[in-house]
Amino acid sequence: MAIAATISVPLTSPTRRTLASVNSLSPHSPRSTLPTPQRTFKYPNSRLVASSMSTETAVKTSSASFLNLKESGFLHFAKYHGLGNDFVLIDNRDTSEPRISAEKAVQLCDRNFGVGADGVIFVLPGINGTDYTMRIFNSDGSEPEMCGNGVRCFAKFVSQLENLHGRHSFTIHTGAGLIIPEVLEDGNVRVDMGEPVLKALDVPTKLPANKDNAVVKSQLVVDGVIWHVTCVSMGNPHCVTFSREGSQNLLVDELKLAEIGPKFEHHEVFPARTNTEFVQVLSNSHLKMRVWERGAGATLACGTGACATVVAAVLEGRAGRNCTVDLPGGPLQIEWREEDNHVYMTGSADVVYYGSLPL
Amino acid sequence: MAITATISVPFTSPSRRTLASVNSLSPRSTRSTLPTPQRTFKYPNSRLVVSSMSTETAVKTSSASFLNRKESGFLHFAKYHGLGNDFVLIDNRDSSEPKISAEKAVQLCDRNFGVGADGVIFVLPGISGTDYTMRIFNSDGSEPEMCGNGVRCFAKFVSQLENLHGRHSFTIHTGAGLIIPEVLEDGNVRVDMGEPILKASDVPTKLHANKDNAVVKSELVVDGVIWHVTCVSMGNPHCVTFSREGSQNLLVDELKLAEIGPKFEHHEVFPARTNTEFVQVLSNSHLKMCVWERGAGATLACGTGACATVVAAVLEGRAGRNCTVDLPGGPLQIEWREEDNHVYMTGSADVVYYGSLPL
């Protein structure tokens, strides 16, 4: 028996909302921190849309056909990853409430019974004049304020939903305030990660400050060994180390993270526990890093960890302000700009596939 | 800017190939093993197709629209799982060569950068008169001859591709020979797992046979503790234990599998290493099992392990020939039939989502 039928799938590209360029830059004093700092973009918001070649357009059209699926009874999504930190992305622009609950998100994130992801990200309508709102449910159901890898995935997803090309940016409302990711010509995404917090009390750490209220290349005894650590918060605490007594340049691949990581994480000098970065200096602009994340163990990519690493490298005089940081999941470009004291993270975010899940 | 276009997706259901009912049953001596035994189905092949309600048809049509998507430049797939053992299923009926290589399958199986799965399964054209051919690439690129959980997923996928309903079956050519899975009314799938191998040297084990060439409730010293073990091969070696000295009924949730599992796996009496099942007897027809799989560690579902467990339980006089076996990933119904000496495994296999991956 043969059944023939035709299903018509309309392809529409929603009109992109315009936004006046953000050209103002509020002066910031070094190391100042506002309760909810509004991160402003230094460069003008350039909403360029470059015309693409026809073959690429054809591919984009095919991609867009998946993004615009609307069959009832199914949840349509895209899977993206930023250096192996993978997310389910959901187009939620038609309502301000996430399409699925945090509990359902936990089920989706299960790697054996569900889709499998580190989190679920929703593209929601903008708030207070922003283009979009971003919300994330972690694989354990918690909701982080921000996630650097997630923002890059969000930005690339929006570019695809809106069929944007070339260099462009948009404003996003998040739990951590306004974020304006910039999609570059090469498809990488730059995100302003804000100002580093260096004051020992605010990181927080009980290690005494030894340089302008900051803990820089300070001695920390772990398991009988003296490590030299610098403490930086990027909204979450990081303990960065480049050396220990007897080994002035770490060979990070030789470290037994599962053994040493927890001892840093739960060390008494870190009242909120800490994320720890073990860093090898390859050159003045190239660092290699491995991370033990608080509550998560060894991970493939920790964006705030990469930022903290460059800040620490500058403070210790080991590297310049613009570095490539190699993480287990891939490289990130990190720049700590002197002019505004902000840390900018640039990296890739790639689509893996498009999916439809029966509800 | 708004773009409007229409894409037409044709929906067709391929004609199902007919096959004469397999009614013959070759007489088989107890415990005999042929090099490649042809597993025959005891009951007649009933290819019933029951008409479904219109609403269900609508849903099926929606499902089928994903299965029949043919956009170029994309690999279309379905994700199924059998008790958490998850697979990417690919409709490959239009070619006898798998659409992707084993190397690509490894990339697909990566849980952070790819789709994430335990393996990739292809539905290929039948060989030697069979309806279909099944091939599997494991997440490490190896190709197993058979996989019970994979067969159930394969069967459910075929049912959906062919829009089959009610009780039905089809013939599949696999690396382990002919398999005829039966999809039951409730959607569960029954698979003939073949005859157990009990002869000690064939399992293989160096433990001495103590019952008709078999090792039944034999003493094995592991880490200074005497365990009572029964050895069964279902094509791969299994060491099943229900008790140890001082504990006549195991409480499997209290075992530290990561510590004890490897010591069984690499024990000198198992020249090919072994899979080990630790079993708690809940009743004469209900067993609870956790498994340490050779080369894989603790897993959610091991179909051959569940089969070996019931065989061992019968040999030790702890349970009857038809049991529910609770595995970490869910329950399986296992029956060791006296009439043909075959072990039949019945369990669920569920679709998680449908996906399309840019190539």
Task: Write up what this structure looks like.
The structure is a homodimer of 359-residue chains. With 359 residues, chain A is an alpha+beta fold. The first copy, chain A, folds into two domains: 203 residues, Roll (Diaminopimelate Epimerase, Chain A, domain 1); 142 residues, Roll (Diaminopimelate Epimerase, Chain A, domain 1). Helices cover 16% and strands 34% of the residues of chain A. In chain A, strands 6, 9, 10, 11, 12, 13, 14, 15, 16, 17, 18 and 19 form a twelve-stranded mixed beta sheet that branches. In chain A, a hairpin with a 5-residue loop joins β9 and β10. At the A-B interface, β1, α1, β2 and β20 of A face β1, α1, β2 and β20 of B.
What is the topology?
The structure is a homodimer of 359-residue chains.
Chain A: E1 4-12, H1 54-67, E2 74-82, E3 85-91, H2 102-109, E4 119-125, E5 132-138, H3 148-161, E6 168-169, E7 172-174, E8 177-179, E9 182-183, E10 189-192, E11 218-222, E12 225-233, E13 237-244, H4 257-265, E14 275-283, E15 286-293, E16 297-298, H5 303-315, E17 322-327, E18 330-336, E19 343-347, E20 350-358
Parallel strand pairs in A: 3-4, 5-7, 13-14, 15-17
Antiparallel strand pairs in A: 2-3, 2-20, 4-5, 6-9, 7-8, 9-10, 10-19, 11-12, 12-13, 14-15, 15-16, 17-18, 18-19
